[in-house]
């Protein structure tokens, strides 16, 4: 464990909690892409099946349980409890265009052709593009609530910190996972446009609105 | 392959 990975995990946890609280407190999921949240639930489910097969640490197990629990709670709030506030018209990204290619790639490019490893690889590839429906929705509505931008910032920052973690681990532990690194770079690059808008607008107190 | 499970990251 190193400082980049710990702050990365905490940033990820913060994002998940911010979103859950935003929906719960405001009793609304306006501006939130339910499709992205479903993809994240799939990412955690396929990645953390090892909860059933191996124990690494209390921290590892508890974080995985929290991530999975919050992901499904968020999907439940969006599609069940507050479904009246779900903006399905703007959440129109065709996720099958993500899941199918990612599924195929996971079968072709992986470290080991075993069930758990292919699911892990699938979850890594899927996570790198899972935010696209959310970013697409913001581009369609042309704006995002400030709390949603904080959620996205923490979410984007987490994998950027993981990139620093992998540099650290390469240098000090000669640990290197090409699949996770490449997917992590893609994932972080997808946020660059948002990071620019967040830093130049939201941090200056303005509302995030895209040139429609 | 090292014996301990190698996926210790979240």
TrEMBL record, chain A:
GO terms for biological process: protein retention in ER lumen; protein transport; vesicle-mediated transport. It is found in: Cytoplasmic vesicle, COPI-coated vesicle membrane; Endoplasmic reticulum membrane; Golgi apparatus membrane. Keywords: Cytoplasmic vesicle, Endoplasmic reticulum, ER-Golgi transport, Membrane, Protein transport, Receptor, Transmembrane, Transmembrane helix, Transport. One of its GO terms (cellular component) is endoplasmic reticulum membrane. It is a multi-pass membrane protein. InterPro entries: ER_ret_rcpt. Its main location: membrane. GO terms for molecular function: ER retention sequence binding. The chain crosses the membrane at residues 65-82, 94-113, 119-138, 150-172, 178-199. Belongs to the ERD2 family. This is ER lumen protein-retaining receptor. It comes from Cynoglossus semilaevis.
